[in-house]
């Protein structure tokens, strides 16, 4: 699908950039100006019940899109915001801050099936015009500590940029056993739903 519209990707993610580029989108990439941790803490403090992972992902994707859409430079463009997180039994996991944390996370996910959920939002002129969420199931192989260590030695610190501590477009298949759902969602952007929306607007 080749679109003639120009979009703005409100993300600094290289993976999301490559997904859009390889899909024929005409777009520019702009880093959003919002503090994810601050937003998460504010949401937690304002809610008595635990927020659903899909709702949190949608809120964060909206904040990213709005932070760019409100900029006069991009005011007349469709701005795409996306946020991806993982959860196991509704427990949401943040990105690992160190290789030690990455090892603990992979150990926890080892042999289990977790969910990857992305919130996707499109804004124009500072207003939300479309939003969705997508969930993909990922099963991690049953791994020994030695296997996890070897994997992390190969990936290095770049793996800390992946919320699940694996990159399916790189070395991730070495520890992933099965994926059910949108493969691109695992990479960080639910492409099929985005294409369905943009195709309908052509």
TL;DR of this structure?
With 202 residues, the protein is of the alpha/beta class. The chain contains 7 helices and 7 strands.
Structural description of this entry:
Helix 4 crosses helix 5 (145-155). The protein is 37% helix and 27% strand. The longest helix is centred in the first third of the chain and has 17 residues, at 53-69. The protein has one domain: Maf protein (Alpha-Beta Complex), CATH 3.90.950.10. The chain is built from seven helices and seven strands. The mean pLDDT is 90. It has 202 residues and is of the alpha/beta class. The protein starts with 5 loop residues before the first strand and ends with a helix. The radius of gyration is 17 Å and the shape is globular. Strands 1, 2, 3, 4, 5, 6 and 7 form a seven-stranded mixed beta sheet that branches.
């Amino acid at each position: 699908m080749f679109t003639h519209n120009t979009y703005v990707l409100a993300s600094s993610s290289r993976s999301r950039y490559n997904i859009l580029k390889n899909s024929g989108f005409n777009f520019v990439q702009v880093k959003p100006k919002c503090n994810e941790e601050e937003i998460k803490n504010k949401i937690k403090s304002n809610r008595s019940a635990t927020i659903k992972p899909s709702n949190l992902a949608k809120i964060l994707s909206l904040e990213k899109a709005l932070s760019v859409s409100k900029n006069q430079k991009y005011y007349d463009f469709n701005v795409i915001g996306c946020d991806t997180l993982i959860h196991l039994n509704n427990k949401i996991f943040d990105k690992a801050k160190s290789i030690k944390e990455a090892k603990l996370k992979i150990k926890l996910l080892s042999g289990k099936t977790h969910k990857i959920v992305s919130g996707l939002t499109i804004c124009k002129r500072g207003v939300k015009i479309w939003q969705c969420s997508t969930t993909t199931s990922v099963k991690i192989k049953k791994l020994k500590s030695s296997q996890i260590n070897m994997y992390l030695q190969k990936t290095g610190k770049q793996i800390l940029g992946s919320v699940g501590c694996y990159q399916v477009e790189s070395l991730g298949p070495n520890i992933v056993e099965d994926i059910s759902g949108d493969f691109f969602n695992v990479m960080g952007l639910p492409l099929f739903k985005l294409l369905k929306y943009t195709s309908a607007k052509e």
